[in-house]
Design goal:
The structure holds two protein chains of two kinds.
Chain A: H1 2-21, H2 23-34, H3 46-74, H4 84-96, H5 99-110, H6 114-138, H7 142-150, H8 155-185, H9 198-206, H10 210-236
Helix pairs in contact in A: 1-10, 2-10, 3-6, 3-8, 4-6, 5-6, 6-8, 7-8, 8-10, 9-10
Chain B: E1 2-11, E2 14-24, E3 29-33, H1 40-47, E4 55-60, E5 63-64, H2 70-75, E6 77-81, H3 92-96, H4 98-102, H5 107-120, H6 125-128, H7 138-150, E7 156-160, H8 168-185, E8 188-193, H9 196-202, E9 205-210, E10 213-218, H10 220-225, H11 230-236, H12 240-244, E11 255-256, H13 270-279, E12 284-286, E13 290-293, H14 294-308
Parallel strand pairs in B: 3-8, 3-9, 6-7, 7-8
Antiparallel strand pairs in B: 1-2, 1-4, 4-5, 9-10, 11-13, 12-13
Helix pairs in contact in B: 5-7
The chains are: A mainly alpha, B alpha/beta.
Chain lengths: ~240, ~300
């Protein structure tokens, strides 16, 4: 089951690489599919958009993971518990707020470009991570924690050796959801001039160019699937 | 070894433990017995500071626990709880190694210790070391719980209904084995249970609690023969004396006689002997060391019981 999973992931990665580094072929394939030709000529090569996209996702997800997990852990501690309700509400609000609006609001503050897009993505990617960290840690059986404390583990040890390892699977689930959402949300970054696979997509929508839309959308989808499957694979290692 | 003086624990207005005092000697197995909510678990948890004391003093090894660091105190006391609380993400081996690792023992020492502990609780090291708790039966998990509590060789063990979740047949086996281990290793044990039979089987002394107060402390014989009040009598439901029989070794009651029988009275307790006599064909049971009849047993026991009566 596991090696089969890996083979599937590898296969999708190869398809993605072919699409990115042999865009002429991909375009010809898409032309056949929609039986129409793209009317846009000379463009930035697809791989540049792809790597811009990847960069945005990686940076924003890493920030969201580090800050989100830390915050999640903090609000489960005795000291952080007071802030738990407020933080969870804020995080929820960030998620409920329409992401294009967050992006648009960043423009007057940070101007056009990567920075604003990253902040919007981080805010958006935050919730599943914080949420799952809190739930994962709170779901660790009281008896197990009681036993650990009774044997002389201090709070730090209990987190490091018991709570966090046991919550890992749930936390990873949050990271997975968040990153997958992030990959598709990053297409919106094109609207604030941060580049990424959103650029061909948005251009395609504007000019009703089916091929352009697919050139942006298909790599995004493949990237999301690869991420989903890879993280799920890691999650299984934490099965008890 | 453990001394409680006027220990009280209050939760707001509720008094969970009400000014109790007891003294547990080195090597003694003291059972705290009582109905649920009587404060027995709280008493146990006060000793390793899982619960903070409201009033009174607890001395462990002659030192007031207020002056001992929480974590240091807990590392020096074995702790077993009903649900066992084995760490599900760690192998049996790692579970047992918990306290030795916290104490920074050397790897080799720990590894040897794990094997020794598994053998002590009757599980083969090769077969069980790598297993995860989810792969163990209830009885096995409970044994690992005991092995883990003994791993760092603490002189004191606190046990909160440790065999509560095990089926009756395995429970009896575990209780006997545990009593044997405790006596061999000369550990001081404070054992909490609501099971009268369990208490009578394993205790050196029993402390009966109700509503946060100590009702009676004494040996199983003293308590079952002279229950202090109606509560104790009701709690024992007259079973006390019968349950005591399983504590008595048959060898102490045989009438010496030369025989060529191969079975030894050392392997039987009085309860088993009486059961055999009642269900068997013969009126007497012959062992290598001598013989036993119902009449002789009852005469001897009546004498003993009279000695205890005040």
């Amino acid at each position: 089951m596991n090696s089969k999973n890996k083979a599937v992931i590898l296969f999708i990665i190869i398809i993605l690489l072919v699409i990115i580094f042999y865009p002429q072929g991909f375009e010809r394939f898409l032309s056949l599919l929609v039986s129409r030709k793209s009317n846009t000529t000379s463009r930035t090569p697809l791989y540049i958009y792809f790597f811009q996209h990847l960069q945005m996702v990686i940076i924003s997800s890493l920030i969201a993971i580090v800050v989100g997990v830390t915050l999640g852990i903090f609000i489960t501690t005795d000291k952080g518990e007071v802030y738990k309700d407020i933080f969870l509400k804020l995080v929820n609000l960030g998620q409920a707020f329409p992401s294009p609006a967050i992006l648009a609001l960043m423009v007057p503050v940070l101007g056009y470009g990567l920075k604003g897009a990253l902040i919007a993505l981080v805010i958006y990617a935050f919730m599943p991570i914080v949420y799952n960290t809190v739930i994962g840690i709170e779901e660790v059986s009281r008896d197990v924690v009681e036993a650990a404390r009774g044997m002389g583990m201090n709070n730090y040890m209990i987190y490091r050796k018991i709570k966090i390892p046991l919550a890992s699977k749930v936390i990873l689930g949050g990271i997975r959801t968040s990153t997958v959402i992030n990959i598709s949300a990053a297409t919106l970054a094109a609207a604030v001039g941060a580049g990424g696979l959103g650029v061909p997509l948005v251009n395609g929508v504007r000019t009703f160019d089916m091929i352009l839309i697919l050139q942006g959308a298909i790599p995004v989808t493949l990237l999301a699937i690869i991420t989903e499957l890879s993280i799920k694979n890691i999650e299984h290692r934490f099965d008890v | 070894m453990i001394k409680l003086s006027n220990v009280t624990k209050k939760y707001g207005n509720f008094v969970a433990v009400d000014s109790i005092s007891m003294d547990i000697k080195q090597g003694e197995l003291m059972v705290i017995l009582g109905p649920s909510g009587c404060g027995k678990s709280t008493t146990l948890r006060l000793i390793n500071k899982m619960v903070t004391i409201s009033e009174g003093d607890i001395l462990v090894r002659g030192k007031n626990i207020v002056d001992i660091d929480d974590v240091e105190l807990r590392k020096s006391i074995g702790y077993v709880i009903q649900s066992i609380g084995l760490f599900p993400h760690m192998s049996v081996e790692k579970n047992i190694a918990t306290v030795p690792t916290l104490l920074n023992w050397e790897k080799e020492t720990i590894s040897k210790r794990i094997d020794k502990m598994l053998e002590l609780v009757g599980l083969s090291p090769e077969k069980y070391k790598e297993k995860k708790p989810a792969q163990l039966s209830g009885g096995e998990a409970q044994r690992i719980g005991v092995a883990r509590a003994l791993a760092a060789d603490p002189d004191i063990l606190l046990m909160d209904e440790p065999f509560g979740a095990v089926d009756p047949i395995n429970r009896l086996r575990l209780q006997r084995e545990f009593r044997q281990i405790q006596q061999n290793l000369n550990k001081t044990v404070l054992f909490v249970t609501h099971d009268v039979e369990e208490a009578l089987l394993i205790a050196d002394r029993i402390c009966i609690m109700n509503h946060g107060k100590i009702i009676q402390i004494g040996t199983p014989e003293e308590i079952s023969i002279n229950p202090k009040n109606e509560f104790v009598k009701e709690f024992f439901k007259g079973e006390g004396i019968l349950s005591l029989l399983s504590r008595k070794k048959a060898i102490d009651y045989v009438i010496p006689r030369i025989s060529n029988e191969s079975k030894s009275a050392n392997d039987f307790n009085l309860k088993e002997v009486i059961t055999l006599l009642l269900t068997g064909e013969a009126d007497e049971l012959i062992f290598k060391e001598g013989h036993l009849t119902l009449n002789e047993i009852s005469r001897a026991l009546r004498g003993e019981i009279n000695e205890f009566k005040e």
